[in-house]
UniProtKB/TrEMBL annotation:
The lineage of its organism: Bacteria, Pseudomonadati, Pseudomonadota, Gammaproteobacteria, Oceanospirillales. This is Transposase zinc-ribbon domain-containing protein. Residues 1-24 are annotated as: Disordered.
Length: 69
């Protein structure tokens, strides 16, 4: 599984992430190049989802939008 598009590394600008083995949602994500700690994976995803939701709401093109019909 590939991680959802996530922020570039603030340290080196790399987008490559390293996912150490661990219980899903409880491990940290590290930059593949410089080992910068992005924090917990679930928090990273939650932040990104939040941004995505805002963007989709703004564009009105969400595929996941609940249908009112
Ligand atoms: Zn880095």
């Amino acid at each position: 599984m590939q991680a959802p598009s996530s922020p570039d590394c603030p340290e080196c600008g790399s987008r490559a992430k390293r996912f150490p083995p661990g219980r899903e949602g409880q491990y940290h994500v590290f930059c593949k190049k410089c080992d910068h700690d992005f924090g917990r994976y679930d928090h990273l995803v939650a932040d990104y989802r939040h941004l995505l939701d805002e963007l989709e709401a703004h564009l009105g093109t969400s595929d996941n939008a609940p249908r009112d019909i």
